[in-house]
């Protein structure tokens, strides 16, 4: 059996300790705060980013350095036969298409999934991919299965619009108006893209609406379920049993880490489901 290296980037919200335990190789992404560059989990921590966001500093992310990506592949191929790389959604970053282009120089030994995934669901799908590879599927077959059948749907509810405003995703005027009117946005993650799907008046109503949307018109047993929070575990603890009752399935609790946290801001709650690969 071929020896396959599983790989993602740090937008997958996986710690170095978890990555080591799961034998997943992580390409850490750059983060800048007020123009100074750091590397996620290496030269900056999640707590540093939370403090910077709460202080309304300018926090941005960037694609992984191309040289770091290629060097990781070269190093992995010294010990592995092939590399299976599942990057951040192609709708949210140019990393995916860049990696697909670069992989062609590795003569079929690097497989890059044309991904529509983001956050910890990347890790969930990589764990399912490993099971398929161990059953005898090839990297090419698993890549096609993820691209054809993989599905992530999530509803993300920011506690406030500060991070979205500071990141340039909404205008200061729109953020101010939303704050004045106490409007709470609901953002969906579907087909790899993030869109505004609804606006309600209170966080309590937003959470209720989010759970209704993520559990509607599907067979819950066909999915893996999770609730993800950004420095808001108390609310996650409160909402987890409500989501479990709504879907009738176990719900995993996770934390938004540096890359995604930068865009959503502290306090965010996300409800998500990932289709099981069969």
TrEMBL record:
Keywords: Lipid-binding
Superkingdom of origin: Bacteria
InterPro entries documented for this protein: DegV, DegV_C, DegV_domain_contain
Annotated Pfam families: DegV
Signal peptide: none
Any one Gene Ontology molecular-function term assigned to this protein's record: lipid binding
Spans through the membrane: none
PANTHER family with a match to the protein in the record: DEGV DOMAIN-CONTAINING PROTEIN DR_1986-RELATED, FATTY ACID-BINDING PROTEIN TM_1468
Protein name from the UniProt record: DegV family protein
């Amino acid at each position: 059996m071929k020896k396959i290296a599983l790989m993602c980037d740090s937008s997958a919200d996986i710690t170095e300790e978890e990555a080591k335990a799961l034998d997943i190789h992580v390409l850490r992404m750059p983060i800048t705060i007020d123009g100074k560059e750091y590397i996620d989990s290496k030269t900056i921590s999640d707590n540093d980013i939370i403090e910077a966001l709460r202080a309304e500093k300018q926090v941005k992310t960037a694609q992984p350095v191309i040289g770091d990506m290629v060097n990781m592949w070269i190093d992995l191929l010294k010990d592995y036969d092939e590399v299976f790389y599942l990057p951040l959604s192609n709708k949210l970053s140019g990393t995916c298409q860049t990696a697909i282009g670069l992989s062609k120089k590795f003569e079929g030994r690097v497989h890059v999934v044309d991904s529509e995934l983001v956050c910890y669901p990347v890790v969930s799908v990589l764990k399912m991919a490993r099971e398929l590879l161990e059953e005898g599927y090839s990297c090419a077959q698993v890549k096609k299965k993820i691209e054809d059948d993989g599905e992530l749907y999530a509803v993300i509810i920011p506690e406030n619009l500060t991070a979205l405003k500071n990141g340039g995703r909404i205008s200061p005027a729109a953020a101010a108006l939303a704050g004045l009117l106490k409007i709470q946005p609901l953002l969906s993650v579907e087909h790899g893209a993030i869109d505004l799907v609804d606006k309600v008046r209170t966080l309590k109503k937003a959470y209720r609406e989010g759970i209704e949307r993520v559990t509607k018109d599907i067979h819950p047993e066909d999915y893996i379920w999770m609730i993800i929070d950004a420095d808001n575990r108390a609310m996650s603890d409160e909402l987890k049993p409500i989501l479990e009752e709504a879907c009738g399935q176990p719900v995993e609790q996770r934390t938004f880490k540096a890359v995604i946290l930068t865009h959503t801001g502290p306090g965010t709650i996300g409800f998500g489901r990932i289709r099981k690969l069969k």
